[in-house]
Amino acid sequence: MFDELTEKLESTFARLRGKGTLTEADIKEGLREVRRVLLEADVNFQLTREFLERVEGAAVGVAQLRGVNPAQQLVKIVYDELTKMLGERREGLKLSTIPPSVVMMVGLQGSGKTTTAGKLARKLKAEGRQVRLVAADVYRPAAIDQLETVGQQIGVPVYANRTTNDVVRIAREGIEEAKRGRDRLVIVDTAGRLQIDADMMAELKRLKEAVRPDEILFVADGMTGQEAVRIAQGFDEALGVTGVVLTKMDGDARGGAALSIYGVTKKPIKFIGVGEKLDALEDFHPDRMAGRILQQGDVLTLVEKAQSAFDEEEAKRLEKKVRKDGMDLNDFLVAMKQMQKLGPMKDLLKLLPGVNASMLKQANLDPKRMKHVEAIVLSMTNAERTRPELMNGSRRLRVAKGSGRPVQEVNRLLEQFREMQKMMKKMTQGGGGGGGRMPQL
Ligand code: GDP
């Protein structure tokens, strides 16, 4: 996400950090570069100017600071202002207490509306709500099928009525059905066009009047930069949207949409889509996103990902055992399998503070390595896995042969495992660290 933006900002700050003390001129030069980087990322011109004015105002005196690394101080100022630009604080869905609440998804065709409706339904269902999807996109016949397929995949009922083109009627019927089914939440997928057009807006307005939604979520393709902002304005003026979802943020979105949409429309980004799969939706947190952009890491999102992917029972069992008896290679294998469920290591590492693109390039992140490690561990006997200290030279050779990996790799794995054991010991004895977000500002 925003790789280019992040990389360029990082190199700007790296240059400043390298200087130790900063003159006013250094800061001015640095901020000029930040300006260029933001504009290249397609951030709104006016917002960029205001942003820099605020940063510059706050940075007065940074040059004279002693004791604190002035460049780091400047990063902190930029971090605070970026957070404000992205929306200041997390805004979740605001749903009525009287069921069913209604969420209406709007946006242009291809923005990811239907997919996002499904992702949202899945997420809310996982939070314990009874959800129903309503297919009110009648112009693209495949849209109804698509929503029904999504519904089946996530186990959420879909209301559709192929006998009519009257979307108001469909939505009303869907809500009635939800009431009968005692659903708490209805998500209405609406029709989009390739461009904003008057007919579409008129229809959405009628739909809004009829279903009185708690939320109107505008879904925008995050790759489209300023274009997404302009369309958001159009939808907001006509309908009054309550929140934004930016999709396709897993691709090489430059950042312009994310950094401008709140500033221009004052409508909060509530979620971001980070992949085509139905679990690829993240809550949007302005501060965490600013942290990611500035490579301060986003440990909270990492922890949340871990919590949702891990089998809780298994994790608890593992933790208990490791605390009591220490870790052996069987546990290591279980932990590794759970890690694999989190997705590519490269994406996870990016959430850690200070990990940048060039480090990722250097790190050996070949996904095959996981398979190799697994093969090595599986070639050991159970006794060897529980007591890796048994692994003498001839056993190492045997395992190398059995797994088809060079003996050096077996050695390296055992060495790494020993280091990890040492670290685990320290952690379990020390009562665990603080955790949480840790922008080292
Ligand atoms: P709609 O016309 O607005 O309903 O758009 P769709 O939901 O059909 O999505 C259009 C395309 O974008 C589909 O191929 C989706 O798989 C893809 N898509 C949607 N959200 C994301 C996302 O967050 N990341 C990626 N990579 N693709 C997405």
TrEMBL record:
A Pfam entry, by short name: SRP54
Keywords recorded for this protein, A-Z: Cytoplasm, GTP-binding, Hydrolase, Nucleotide-binding, Ribonucleoprotein, RNA-binding, Signal recognition particle
GO biological process: SRP-dependent cotranslational protein targeting to membrane
Family membership: Belongs to the GTP-binding SRP family. SRP54 subfamily.
Domain of life: Bacteria
Domain SRP54-type proteins GTP-binding intervals: 268-281
Positions with a binding annotation for GTP: 107-114, 189-193, 247-250
PROSITE patterns reported for this sequence: SRP54 (PS00300)
Gene3D superfamilies: P-loop containing nucleotide triphosphate hydrolases, Signal recognition particle SRP54, nucleotide-binding domain, Signal recognition particle, SRP54 subunit, M-domain
Protein name listed in UniProt: Signal recognition particle protein
Subunit organization: Part of the signal recognition particle protein translocation system, which is composed of SRP and FtsY.
Enzyme Commission designation: 3.6.5.4
Keyword check for Membrane: no
A single GO molecular function term of this UniProt record: 7S RNA binding
Protein task: Involved in targeting and insertion of nascent membrane proteins into the cytoplasmic membrane. Binds to the hydrophobic signal sequence of the ribosome-nascent chain (RNC) as it emerges from the ribosomes. The SRP-RNC complex is then targeted to the cytoplasmic membrane where it interacts with the SRP receptor FtsY.
Catalytic reactions of this protein: GTP + H2O = GDP + phosphate + H(+)
Domain notes: Composed of three domains: the N-terminal N domain, which is responsible for interactions with the ribosome, the central G domain, which binds GTP, and the C-terminal M domain, which binds the RNA and the signal sequence of the RNC.
Record's subcellular location: Cytoplasm
Cellular component terms per the entry's GO annotation: signal recognition particle
